[in-house]
Amino acid sequence: MNQLLLPLLLMLVVAIPLVMGTRKQKKAAAAQQELLSSLAPGDRVMTTSGLYASVADASADTTIDLEIAPGVVTTWLRQAVREKVEPVVETDVDDADTIDDEAVVEVPVVESKDDERVEEKSGAQIAPPLEHGKK
What we know:
With 135 residues, the protein is of the alpha+beta class. It is 30% helix and 23% strand. It has helices at residues 2-37, 95-98; strands at 44-47, 52-57, 63-69, 72-77, 81-84, 118-119, 125-126.
């Protein structure tokens, strides 16, 4: 009886992770298949190569048409779609309107005839400009 116990335990130690790994792979494959079958025009997706696109036509069984830029439609294998992503939200905010005028601080440039640091009225120290080419 003791002679059969050790081989049986070793088989269990090897078999349990194998079975659990196989179940995990089957669940992932089923989820991917469900994703591929649920794709509809207008969905935003990412391909396995990292390309973001919108689904233009998903009527074929093995291929899918993706719009990668406005008016540019390419045909891909369905298996190339990795995941659905959130659609891009475009905002019409002008960047010039969002800049806070009070946040911009201008530091006056002071030129000095000698190579010493010059101190402004604000207390900021400004280094003299570097002279390239002099040794």
